[in-house]
Amino acid sequence: MDNYDYVIVGAGSAGCVLANRLSANPATRVLLLEAGPSDWNPLIHMPAGLAQLARKRTMNWCYETEPEPALDRRRLWWPRGKTLGGSSSINAMCYVRGVPADYDSWADASGDPRWSWQQVLPWFLHSEDNSRGASAMHGVSGPLGVSDLRYHNPLSDDFIEAATSAGHARNDDFNGAQQAGFGLYQVTQRGGARCSTAAGFLKPVRDRGNLTVRTGSLVERVWLEHGRAVGVQLRRGRHGSERIEAGEVLVCGGAINSPQLLMLSGLGPADHLREHGIAVVADLPDVGGELQDHLDICTVVGSRRKHLTYDHLNQLGTAIRWWRHRDGPGTSNIAESGGFVRSALADDERCDIQFHFVPAQLDDHGRHRLPGDGYTVHACHLHPRSRGRLRLRSADPAQPVAIHANYLGDAEGHDLKRMIEAARLSREILAQGAFDHCRGVPVFPERELDTDAEYIEFIRRKAETVYHPVGSCRMGRDDRAVVDSELRVRGVEGLRVVDASIMPCLPTGNTNAPTIMIAERVSALILAGKP
Fold this sequence. Notes:
The protein is α/β, with parallel strands linked by helices. Helix content is 24%, strand content 21%. The chain has 13 helices and 24 strands.
């Protein structure tokens, strides 16, 4: 039986960070386990390859929700990374931290000032290697490449111009002094290639003798003895199960897989675990609960001008150019420009709506190819009140959990009102003169919308996730919280959860950069606690 100081379950956005930081001491033995394959596929590393990754089930868990009551009982598709780098290997690479008030609320929820903005900002900077250089808001020489896009479609500039014509500010840095406004996103890239956490944090240290990385390894349960995690049981292909001992187990499976693993190990809502014949080690009612996500509505418009968008891009030519020169459309993250707005419905001083502009027609996450050419605006409400939950279907680790996202499920209709506002603002921006040169017929919605009822029908029929699930192993100081402020699972020693599932509430923006920060922060806490 192998024995390690740390066993990290999940080589995703957080797991690769932990592997790098914890293995820096050559006397410490670290094992990093990943259920998926290595990140060998060239589509991962060419940024524009993300358009093809949606179909690659070998690298994508391809989850689906249960029928959503407020969304015409549709099952929504939830892609999640299943390879080294996790979702940082298949996402759109937008580098967005959120705003100070997000983290001050985390500090309040956890009772720990170490999660306040002033104390987490240094950990964001610690990771960052920003092509713009060092400043009070940006770091350099960190493992994570952050840069401006080397190439972007002219329509992305038109979107920014349209937004300013509609009365919104221009913003060249969403991670700067102010978040509000519209501009081009900075991306997690280095030298025109994707910089996932596998590329930035893991690859440079793979040759450390004290770090072992095993792919194709599905962890079935955490072994618990006398109230302490002592190792994991894993399955590798057809070779059966094996047990690995650990001084500490760090669960980094993400907002879906981490609560599933805890429940399979006897940590979760007691009655639910008993339904599946799982012995209860600790009754933790909020494991799998408090699930939050950003719901997104896409407005799609056709283009009269052909070959302006990415709809009919020469894929072979793009790939060859990228391979030779690391430039051109192959370096695009597709969601090139966007912005943040504090609408009239905002609950506090933070922006409450985020936009991503795509110079192509998107339907069903790009899985449904639409005829012709066009462009798309994603718009999401950033601070939903609705909460969902995850539940086991069975005690089989290979069986995906049931995802009840409960979108638009808050009793007051708070979230729905703000989704209507997001759709209206999208249409207002697209109606500006900057798009007169190419604007064609509306695609989604198919006609002009006038009333709230019409917008509601459109949202229920077409809204989808924008890929930001969090909260299912929530950090907090209350009795129902799953982990404490050092991300230790309550009632168990030697076990932590380190990923987006611990976020008490969604940040004001994308979730990948905050997840990396979480792993940086906790790595330091772990190392500081060692003699």
